[in-house]
């Protein structure tokens, strides 16, 4: 008995720590717990952080003469579509909602995902042009598409303007908690897409935290051959998935789940 793809899942980058210079997949990632490692494209459950699929990024595709192409067709939106075609083809659900990081977001990707019967919840790239220099009030700006009625773009002012691109999202009024200096926690207005994005986007990050912050086999020992260390990294992913399966099974049965220690 295995896991089935849920109705809501997240797509983001993960990392396998790697310090050996002989590892051809090693690259620098400034926003990860381990800045040097192998990049992984991961599809994880938005609620439980269970990893349904991962793909190791091995670099740009080379042409026939050995030169790297100008456009990287193995990363970005192409990586999202390539991985989702595999997981969605094995799913039992008719429609899904995929939450994507802002580095992959684009209008073309949202349209392509609609053809795969998947709604997109994307955090778009922020553009400073035309935005005020300081926040004066919380505001929401909604923009709809005439060609695709389900596509909506919204701008929500937090500390900086935050852009969202959604298809099939219910843009109802909601609130979110923010902490202000000398004031404390306050509830500020926001569209419901902001709550959905923050609640569902952390699937890959939680899986990385469970794998990298404690009980890590890969960093517990060193090998002369770098691929042995990568094997332990894959084994760590299997162990995290096994623990999440045990934890979810305990919740279903109404029993207490064992700790990882």
Automatic annotation (TrEMBL):
Coiled coil (residue ranges): none
Alphabetized Pfam families for the sequence: DDE_Tnp_1_7
Range of residues in the leader sequence: none
Every PiggyBac transposable element-derived protein domain range: 8-243
Protein name: PiggyBac transposable element-derived protein domain-containing protein
Species this chain originates from: Phytophthora megakarya
């Amino acid at each position: 008995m295995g896991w089935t793809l849920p109705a809501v899942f997240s797509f983001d980058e993960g990392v396998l720590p790697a310090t050996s210079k002989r590892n051809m997949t090693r690259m620098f990632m400034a926003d990860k717990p381990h800045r040097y490692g192998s990049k992984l494209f991961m599809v994880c459950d938005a609620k439980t952080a269970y990893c349904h699929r991962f793909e190791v990024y091995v670099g740009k595709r080379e042409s026939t003469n050995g030169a790297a192409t100008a456009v990287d067709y193995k990363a970005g939106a192409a990586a999202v579509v390539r991985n989702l075609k595999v997981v969605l083809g094995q799913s039992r659900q008719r429609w899904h909602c995929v939450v994507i990081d802002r580095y992959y977001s684009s209008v073309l990707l949202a349209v392509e995902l609609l053809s795969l019967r998947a709604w997109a919840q994307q955090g778009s790239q922020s553009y400073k042009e035309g935005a005020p220099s300081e926040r004066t009030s919380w505001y929401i700006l909604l923009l709809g598409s005439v060609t695709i009625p389900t596509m909506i773009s919204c701008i929500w002012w937090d500390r900086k303007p935050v852009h969202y691109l959604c298809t099939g999202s219910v843009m109802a009024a909601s609130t979110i908690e923010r902490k202000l200096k000398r004031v404390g926690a306050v509830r500020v207005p926001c569209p419901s897409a902001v709550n959905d994005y923050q609640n569902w986007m952390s699937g890959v990050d939680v899986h990385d935290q469970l794998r990298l912050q404690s009980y890590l086999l890969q960093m517990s020992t060193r090998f002369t051959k770098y691929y042995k260390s990568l094997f332990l990294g894959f084994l760590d992913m299997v162990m995290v998935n096994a623990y999440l399966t045990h934890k979810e099974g305990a919740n279903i049965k109404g029993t207490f789940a064992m700790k990882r220690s």
